[in-house]
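Troubleshooting log. The previous structure file for this entry was overwritten by mistake, so regenerating from the original sequence record. Sequence copied from the archived sheet and checked twice against the printout by T.R.
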Amino acid sequence: LAGTLWSHTATAVQKQKVELDKRLRSRLKEESSSVMTSILERWKGLAGYSRRDSMAAYLTIARQWSGFGCTLYEVDFYISSTGSFSQKLWLGVAASSVSLYKQGESEALESFPYGQICSYSVSDSNTFRITAGDRDLMFETTKLTEIIQLMNAYFSAIHCQRGKGEDPDFSITDTTEVGFRQLVPTPTPTLLELPSHPV
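Regenerated output below.
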């Protein structure tokens, strides 16, 4: 009797699994068909466009993203200054700001224009800190050198624009202006020369 019940239960479980797999395959087929139909409709809308026009249309759409033009780096963002809890995020470094993105999401969780950044510094070979206003942000990443070099380049470009009397398309606060005046007599620091970068 026990063998019969076991056999019946195993058969029922196997049937349920087969039925579930069937439904899943059917649903995936429907979804992929729907996606393909949508892609084909969009593709048909580009009929008659040259390659250049298609690229221009693509860039017009891409420019609508708030993070367009930024370089994304995977970082561990430490919630507390003691490093007790971290969250994997993307750090977006752009010409006008540094932003934090949840991985896979298009909208920034937080954005810090360079005018709000008081300093950024290297803590060790994989850890760096950004001070923006009263916020102290700590990150860990394997791309530390790239991030610091890119931020140095953007701050240097801002410094050059201000020296030429050009008005960058973002605001610089008074406290940052003082920081820039302090940087005028010194050459742009590199990562190895100066591990802390007041701005």
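The two ends are 81 Å apart (CA to CA). Archived copy saved in two places this time.
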